[in-house]
Design brief:
This protein is of the alpha+beta class and 126 residues long. The protein contains four helices and six strands. The two termini are 25 Å apart.
């Protein structure tokens, strides 16, 4: 394979290199937003950060439902995960009863990035 062929290879990186997140909660429901660092990354996020992949990422928390809401004008998406907070703030013995750390779990998801978008990634390569 010539060196020019290696430039066609996608790079697997954690989602936090493409986007940042915010988290909120209501009862036993968590809302996690994913906001692209750059508009050019939006289509890739829509393609790869799906309800099914988020449900898989949170399998240990046993969500009863995962719903994605797209906000293309903001290059953002919001995920609503039901029954992932051990009953919610008033019922959970969990140290993170608000689920603030759950965005870190989502932002650790691996995303395949093609070469032409790799210039928009943030943070160091590992």
């Amino acid at each position: 394979m010539s060196p020019s062929h290696t430039s066609d290879v996608t790079m697997s990186v954690p989602l936090h290199r493409l986007a940042h997140g915010r988290t909120g909660d209501k009862g036993n429901r968590s809302n996690i937003s994913v906001i692209a660092w750059h508009p050019a990354l939006w289509d890739l996020l829509v393609e790869q950060v799906t309800e099914a992949r988020v449900a898989e990422q949170f399998a240990l928390r046993h969500p009863s439902a995962v719903k994605r809401h797209l906000l293309p004008q903001l290059q953002a998406m919001n995920f609503v995960l039901d029954e992932v907070l051990d009953g919610g703030v008033n019922d959970a013995l969990n140290l993170d009863s608000h689920g603030k750390a759950l965005s870190f779990l989502l932002l650790d998801m691996q995303v395949e990035v093609p070469p032409h978008l790799q210039t928009h990634l943030v943070g160091p390569e590992r």
